[in-house]
């Protein structure tokens, strides 16, 4: 055989062999392994870093006290770059290669749904940390998937509860043209109409996700002169919407409601340049409730990472609590026992006690509705006049879940 | 026709590797069976792209559309109807080829960058439709948990199925490229004006090449569904098309198996380097630059060069043509 | 919905102001495409660096001067990066296949993208408009941000500057000549390699200007490069490769069809730019205006 063919054959063989000799994750006793698949590139990173960092903070604390049942907890992360095929691929790598006991992630709803389907077959518990699709614990929920974050059904109910009390009748709906935006809008509008049948929808605008220039949309909306506008945006569009609203003076003239307008992720980058009087809802504020537990949490986070915790930090912390407490209750790291233990589990958190509803594996999170306001002492706007909407008012009923799952 | 191939330097080692791959599930851990299968699927997509890029000289910048359409066609039939799996599997490449025919018909009227941009625009329109049509296509949530026939239910059987289909497809593609049609295609790539002058219908040849390539892309899409049991709108987005294109370039687009190697490198890099650093795209970028500087014919081109005289249609000859005042971009 | 003249006019102007940012970026991309015949995929990354650099500079010089300083310094910074990339790596590749040059710019975009993440982190950044340009004015009764008026002014200024540069200055004329026939330029004894370097740096400088201009209007995030680059390529193609006025026409088509589409058919505005490209390329397969080569 000629030299080159030998070279090719041996190169490929070496490659194949090296794959087989690659260190595979250790099984057996030793640390408990958690795998996090999430997006650490592009715009979502600002949210997901908080989830990971708060998780690390909580886990470090537990490990310092000797771990869980004498075993330390280790976690490893993978970046899916907000691509569903990489998300699924990396989830498979974490389970098959890294051999994690528990899986966590991701901010991409399609990714969470794909991974959820996969873990069903693998029988690995998967805790969703930031995806908002209600299908995760609703229509597509099952034994092996949990969610410790809000979803569009809950947001819809909470927002409607708050908006119904206000005097607006003629609404405009605007948002990001993808599943999350539409589901959010449908959730808010559906519930609002139920609570206040007088409301009417004057028009809708939908822009592509991440659309940088929202001024044309705002001028079109103000031409219609609605009483209020419901914005169904995610991520970067929220900041863009707030900026455009400030620049055109829109926020002064027409009341705006944006889910997470009051949340720190949106307000922090805008500094003192954010518009006031915007109504928003959020799962977490580092300054409210002003309890010792929340203060201590925010302080520890800031000391460790140099920034104030945003809503992702709450989710990361909750994930850690649920995991640790459930393993303790189960008595050992057995996946089935772990799932049984987590159902109905109650953990303490910076915003109070949170329960994991047994039926649909959805954490029962309250919602905080507030209005953006400039307050002396902070270099950014904060939420004021905060009203707490308790979890029970926010969760879809068990009958609704049963119906969605076709039972 | 195959004598020269069998007598060529690479044939027997390649057969050896193929046999090794067939036995892989017997000795490799589960995860490697999955990763190899993923490499097979993606490399089929890359190979199909290379038919028109490397051998046809067309700027097919949105090949992912056909890959995605094939995957969605199969997925929709399996998830929404009770059609038999075989029907769904055949529908994939046929739908992809039809899409290729329609989009290709518009695109072949243009050249180079204009061809590419028109394809990106038309492809993006399809993406937008799939992305928005939530009730039918699942929108950006995608469709998951797609049913598979029982003979494909285990990961091992999926692996064998994919490997067999890949091998058959590669043999078919090789045959087509070595045929008179394939030779004409390469002649068109090297000098379209001369071909026109000799009476060859350049546009029709290119269109036919696109239809064939997109047919194979559709097959790759079907294999994707077999492997992952999911489809999502990302498959039709231009970023994936660019990734597949880069796999071809990295591996060496003047060689037949170059794209396979390029795919293997990128998928491995992504999977294994991603464990250690979240900046693996930085590493990929540096790797690409090293390849550009030191391995101008791609990795496979370099490996082939080591063994003997320059392969046909090498990068150097292309430069000569360009320098003589060729068409440019 | 009452669509008065005021609203349509205001919307039209908004479309134009957005087009101006696109024009500045695309003029640079088109210039590079014309002279070097390379589609610069890294253009989006340089735009993003321009925006992030503007953020850092305005943080360093708070108050009224920050933005104006950034408008000058950020593009220079971007130009410096591109000069280094060009002299160290790119210039050795001019003899290569076009696809290899494309691959190179893609690799650079990957590297720059991750470098931005390493240097600036993942947080959203925001830059405020300078006090002179804050707030809005009333145009026929509809409110219009002052900053967008500034953009409408800047576009033509950059365009005229570029036109003067390429037609009146020696180096500009040489660049244009090199775009049409690089061999002839070489034969005349001019160092073509330096001409290329120069053209590349100017083009990237413009990307930086675009990034600086866009900074006060959007949230500055990772991933800005991807959203921009595809639009930029589409615009440059429909305008005519290498043709600056083509970039202007293309940008205007993009910006205005988008903003008017938003007003009249908000559900479908998402596809308008693509439809516009399809229509243009089918009617005029070589772009609207003459391409340089």
Task: Give the secondary structure arrangement, pairings included.
The complex is a heterotrimer of chains A (407), B (329) and C (293).
Chain A: H1 3-21, E1 32-38, H2 45-64, E2 73-79, H3 84-97, E3 102-105, H4 109-122, E4 126-128, E5 145-147, H5 152-164, E6 170-176, H6 179-195, E7 200-207, H7 215-224, E8 228-232, H8 236-248, H9 250-253, E9 256-259, H10 264-270, E10 279-282, H11 292-305, H12 311-330, H13 335-342, E11 346-349, E12 352-357, E13 362-363, E14 367-373, E15 382-389, H14 391-394, H15 398-404
Helix pairs in contact in A: 2-12, 3-4, 5-6, 8-10, 12-13
Chain B: H1 3-7, H2 11-22, H3 24-27, H4 30-53, H5 64-80, H6 85-107, H7 112-132, H8 134-137, E1 143-144, H9 155-178, H10 180-190, H11 192-198, H12 202-228, E2 230-231, H13 238-251, H14 258-273, H15 280-294, H16 298-307, H17 315-323
Antiparallel strand pairs in B: 1-2
Helix pairs in contact in B: 4-9, 4-12, 4-13, 4-14, 5-6, 5-12, 6-7, 6-12, 9-12, 10-11, 10-12, 13-14, 14-16
Chain C: H1 5-36, H2 43-60, H3 65-88, H4 98-120, E1 136-139, E2 142-145, H5 146-168, H6 170-180, H7 182-187, H8 192-214, H9 224-239, H10 244-264, H11 272-283
Antiparallel strand pairs in C: 1-2
Short description:
The complex is a heterotrimer of chains A (407), B (329) and C (293). Chain A contains 15 helices and 15 strands. Chain A has 407 residues and is of the alpha/beta class.
Report on the architecture of this protein.
The complex is a heterotrimer of chains A (407), B (329) and C (293). With 407 residues, chain A is an alpha/beta fold. Chain A is built from 15 helices and 15 strands. Chain A has a 7-stranded mixed sheet with strand order 7-6-8-9-10-14-15, with helices on both faces. Chain A has a 5-stranded parallel sheet with strand order 2-1-3-4-5, with helices on both faces. In chain A, strands 11-12-13 form a 3-stranded antiparallel sheet, with helices on one face. In chain A, strand 11 and strand 12 form a beta hairpin. In chain A, helix 2 packs parallel to helix 12, helix 5 runs parallel beside helix 6 and helix 12 crosses helix 13. The model of chain A has no long low-confidence stretch (mean pLDDT 89). Chain B has 17 helices and 2 strands. Chain B is globular and about 50 Å long. In chain C, helix 2 packs antiparallel against helix 3 and helix 9 runs parallel beside helix 11. In chain C, 59% of the residues are buried. Classes of the chains: A alpha/beta (407), B mainly alpha (329), C mainly alpha (293). Chains A and B meet through helix 1, strand 2, helix 3 and helix 4 of A and helix 2, helix 4, helix 14 and helix 16 of B.
